[in-house]
C-alpha cells in the first residue's frame, strides 16, 4: 500500500470501520514494553526511596549486557539475551520468586554493526495468557517468533533483510488477535554498496503467525516506537511515528493508512503515548535537536490531524515518557527531567538531574524512577512540584527499562538480572 495521504484521508470513513478491537489480551500490568498500555506506571508496588546490593532478593548472571527490557507474567520473567561469543541470541525465562532458570532457547545470529548504545538483544517480549512473542533482526533476516510459556516454539516468521545503521530496537505488541511489528528501516545515510530498506507495519495472526496485512510506510531512517492503540468512539486506530510519515494512524484490521502528519525532522525512537484523543511522540538525534509533539487524532474523514503542542527543550530522543493521570513525566537523553500537563503541553517543572539516559522512566506509586546509562538512579516525587528524594548507584550500566509488578522490580544491571523485593500495595 503506497503512502497517498491526501486521497486516503478523503476516502477513508472511520465511522464505517469494524467495531473496536480489545486493547490488550495480556491481563498482567508489566507483560510488554513499558508496562500496561506502554504508560510506565505501577500502582501495586511500594518503591523504597533507595536501595543497595544487599537488598536484592536474587541476582542472575547473564554473560552479556543487553538493552532489551524484561517482562513479567504469572510469576514468570521473560527476556531476550545475547551470546556474542557463540553468535547466538536467546529467549530466557526465570521464576520471579526464586530467580531460578525455567528455560532457555538459543538461535544463531549473524554478527553485525550496531550503535554503541545498542545490543544484539534489544527488543522486549510481549506475553499474554498463552504465548510469548519476541523479535530480533540481522542484516538478512527479521524474525518474529511465538513460544508458549514453557518455551515450546509455536510458530516463527522471517520478514527478510533489515537495513539500519543502528541495528534493531523495536518490540512486538498484541492487540486483539493480531501481533504487530513496526518494521522501520533505513534509506538515508547509507554506506557505499548498501541498499535502502523497505519500511512497513506488519500484522500477523496471534495463534498461527499467518500474515494479515503489511502496510508500506515511507522509508527514511530506522525508527523504533512500539505501536499504540487509540480506541475512539466506535473505532480503533494503530498509532505510531516515524521520520517520513510523521505521526500516523492505521486501521488495525486492514492496515489502511487513515491519516498522517509530518511533524518530525529526525529519527523517532520512543514509543507514542495516547492521552485522550492526543498522540504524543518524540524525535531527535544523539547530537540534539530533540522535539516532542502532540497531535490530535482525527475521529473521521471530515477531520484533519492537528498539532496541539510542541516541546523543543527537554524532549526525549530514546526514553519513552510516563503518563500518570494528566501528567507526562520524562527525561531527555542528557539528563533533563520534565513534568508536562499532558493535554496542553504546559511545562509544570523542568530540572537537570545529570547523566545520559536510554532507559525509560517509570512511576511507581508517587515516585518517579530515572536510571541513567552509568546505573545512577534518581528518585523524584511524581508530582507538580520538583522534589528530589535520592540519588544512588546500582553498581553497573543500565540501558533497559525495569519491570515493576507485584512488589518486584526486575532490573538489568550490567551483565546481571536482579530482583528488588518491595512491599506490595
Strand content: 35-45%
Largest sheet: 5 strands, mixed
What structural category do the secondary elements indicate? mainly beta
Strand order of the largest sheet: 1-28-29-30-31
Based on the structure given, which CATH architecture of the domain at 70-225 is correct? Beta Barrel
CATH class of the domain at 70-225: Mainly Beta
Helix fraction by DSSP (H/I, runs of at least 4) = under 10%
Number of helices: 1
Topology:
Layout: H1 5-11, E1 41-42, E2 45-46, E3 56-61, E4 71-73, E5 76-83, E6 88-95, E7 101-108, E8 126-127, E9 131-138, E10 141-148, E11 153-158, E12 173-175, E13 178-183, E14 200-205, E15 211-216, E16 228-232, E17 235-242, E18 246-250, E19 257-261, E20 273-275, E21 278-283, E22 291-296, E23 306-311, E24 322-324, E25 327-331, E26 336-341, E27 347-352, E28 362-364, E29 367-371, E30 376-381, E31 388-393, E32 403-405, E33 408-413, E34 416-421, E35 423-424
Parallel strand pairs: 1-28
Antiparallel strand pairs: 2-35, 3-34, 4-5, 5-6, 6-7, 8-9, 9-10, 10-11, 12-13, 13-14, 14-15, 16-17, 17-18, 18-19, 20-21, 21-22, 22-23, 24-25, 25-26, 26-27, 28-29, 29-30, 30-31, 32-33, 33-34
Amino acid at each position: 500500500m503506497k503512502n497517498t495521504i491526501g486521497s486516503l484521508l478523503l476516502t477513508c470513513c472511520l465511522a464505517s470501520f469494524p467495531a473496536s478491537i480489545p486493547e490488550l489480551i495480556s491481563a498482567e500490568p508489566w507483560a510488554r514494553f513499558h508496562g500496561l498500555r506502554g504508560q510506565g506506571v505501577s500502582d501495586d508496588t511500594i518503591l523504597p526511596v533507595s536501595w543497595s546490593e544487599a537488598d536484592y532478593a536474587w541476582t542472575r548472571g547473564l554473560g552479556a549486557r543487553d538493552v532489551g527490557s524484561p517482562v513479567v507474567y504469572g510469576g514468570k520473567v521473560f527476556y531476550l539475551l545475547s551470546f556474542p561469543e557463540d553468535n547466538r541470541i536467546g529467549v530466557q525465562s526465570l521464576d520471579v520468586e526464586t530467580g531460578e532458570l525455567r528455560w532457555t532457547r538459543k538461535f544463531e545470529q549473524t554478527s553485525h554493526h550496531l550503535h554503541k548504545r545498542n545490543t544484539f538483544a534489544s527488543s522486549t517480549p510481549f506475553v499474554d495468557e498463552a504465548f510469548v512473542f519476541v523479535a530480533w533482526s540481522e542484516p538478512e533476516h527479521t524474525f518474529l517468533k511465538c513460544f508458549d510459556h514453557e518455551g515450546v516454539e509455536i510458530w516463527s516468521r522471517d520478514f527478510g533483510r533489515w537495513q539500519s545503521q543502528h541495528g534493531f530496537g523495536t518490540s512486538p505488541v498484541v492487540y486483539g488477535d493480531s501481533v504487530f511489528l513496526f518494521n522501520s528501516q533505513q534509506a538515508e545515510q547509507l554506506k557505499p554498496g548498501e541498499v535502502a530498506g523497505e519500511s512497513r507495519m506488519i500484522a500477523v495472526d496471534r495463534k498461527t503467525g499467518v500474515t494479515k496485512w503489511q502496510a508500506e510506510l515511507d522509508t527514511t531512517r530506522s525508527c523504533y516506537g512500539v505501536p499504540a492503540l487509540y480506541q475512539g468512539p466506535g473505532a480503533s486506530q494503530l498509532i505510531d511515528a516515524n521520520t517520513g510519515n510523521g505521526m500516523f494512524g492505521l486501521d488495525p484490521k486492514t492496515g489502511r493508512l487513515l491519516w498522517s502528519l509530518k511533524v518530525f525532522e529526525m529519527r523517532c525512537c520512543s514509543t507514542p503515548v495516547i492521552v485522550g484523543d492526543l498522540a504524543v511522540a518524540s524525535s531527535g538525534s544523539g547530537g540534539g535537536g530533540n522535539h516532542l509533539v502532540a497531535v490530535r487524532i482525527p475521529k473521521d474523514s471530515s477531520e484533519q490531524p492537528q498539532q496541539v503542542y510542541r516541546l523543543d527543550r527537554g524532549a526525549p530522543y530514546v526514553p519513552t515518557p510516563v503518563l500518570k493521570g494528566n501528567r507526562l513525566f520524562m527525561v531527555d537523553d542528557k539528563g533533563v527531567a520534565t513534568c508536562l500537563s499532558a493535554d496542553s503541553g504546559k511545562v509544570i517543572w523542568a530540572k537537570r538531574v545529570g547523566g545520559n539516559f536510554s532507559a525509560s522512566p517509570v512511576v511507581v506509586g508517587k515516585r518517579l524512577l530515572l536510571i541513567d546509562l552509568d546505573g545512577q538512579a534518581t528518585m523524584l516525587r511524581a508530582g507538580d512540584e520538583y522534589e528530589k528524594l535520592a540519588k544512588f548507584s546500582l553498581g553497573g550500566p543500565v540501558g533497559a527499562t525495569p519491570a515493576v509488578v507485584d512488589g518486584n522490580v526486575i532490573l538489568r544491571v550490567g551483565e546481571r538480572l536482579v530482583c528488588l523485593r518491595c512491599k506490595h500495595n
